[in-house]
User: What shape does this take?
Amino acid sequence: AAGLPGAPAPFDKGGAKIALISYISAGDFFQAYQAGAEAQAKALGVDLRVFPGRQNASEQREQILQAINLGVDGIVIDHGLPESLGDVVEQALSKNIKVVAFDVNLNNPKIPQVEQSDHRLAELALDKAIKDNGTAFKAGYVYVAGFAPLDRRNEVWEKVKAANPGIEQKAHFGSVSDTTAATTADQAKAALQANPDITVVFAPYDEFARGVKLALADLGRSDAVKIYSADVSTADIQEITEAGSPWVATAATNPAVVGAVSIRAVALQIAGQPVPPRIVVEPLLITQDELRAAGVQTVEDLARKIPAFSTSAAVTADWIPAAAF
Ligand code: SR1
Assistant: This one.
């Protein structure tokens, strides 16, 4: 790979090796995150090895060991189960391999944590839910414990319920797999049939929201319930803006930006430059009304309307070229 003249070693000569090791690769968020990481790696002249995630903790451990054996300079760990990663990550650090974590709490001061400000993201979505529905409604909630971003979003949901006793959680469901939307749809159907008074669903992951929307369509109840979510993709924008869609708002970052930020963080560490322990990409609230009014149909349209959506000033340096995505 071409080097970057004037950049610190090893980026001046090119060919630094970084591994991106994901726990989940399926779904729009993770595909866009990977594309952003690849674009930033290309701009840096990095040889990026992508290890696909299949929600398999032992496979992810094995991939970290493979990356160590490949002699990578850095590893980005994208989601995962902290309890199954600690010792292999220690092995990487002991070989002076730099490690950055996205959305997995490895609780190690040597490992910077990239996140999307999940508290803010949940606040944006739930403030909008309260603005639209008031402070008393029957809610469905989609949540799976053990994923750092979902756990952080859950802290806000618990606080909002405690502050608004009129919000009653009637059903809790959810599943994370390579068929999250379809499985969530089956669960949502049962929950909505058992609780026909639910008028709001908080589904803070776009695959969850897609599942709830499918269930409502099957039940013929899309006009009776509103969905508030996290994440955005071109496919999500189409589902949000289509006629009669119950998916009325989502709070999101641009996942490609988060992928690029993750690569920049590990590159700075490899170059021996300082990286803060917590690197946050701020989300925006995106509403159905605004998307329709502005004629936004794709993530690219969204970026044109809101330039801040496609950039982040986090972990930059003058020698790091911008990623093209
Ligand atoms: C299973 S965790 C799913 C979440 O990870 C990322 O933080 C995305 O925002 C997604 O909602």
Summary: The chain has eleven helices and twelve strands. The chain has a mean pLDDT of 97.
